[in-house]
Amino acid sequence: MEELVIGSDHAGFELKEHLKGELDRLKITYRDVGVHSTERADYPLYSAKVARAVSSGEFEKGIIICGTGIGASITANRFKKVRAALCVTQEMARMAKSHNNANVLVLGGRITPLDEAINILNAWLVTGFEGGDKPRRPEFK
Known about the structure:
Number of helices: 5
Number of domains: 1
Largest sheet: 5 strands, parallel
Strand content: 15-25%
């Protein structure tokens, strides 16, 4: 079974391909829902594909990359059960996962250096949610 779903727009394509190399190295299976080139594409379409796959329960987690990550995170968080977090540092990724149980990692392809993106991804992947006994936050959707 594939472990996660990944998608990007054209601005995130290079970073997505770079991250896929790291996922392959880690032997983490994934489904790439596009894009598959640098040809212009609208981020909401690919953000929604990833978010819908997580929201439906088909995948437990996902990764979305657009130019800055802002639009992708806004789009993804419109879906029930999706907790998308735009992370620009390893510490943000750890906190997003441990405190907020973020199930979608969002990155900015135009603002995140390739090597730092690998560090952010790895921090997010290895961090667990520490709030198992904390009161649940309200769901507004």
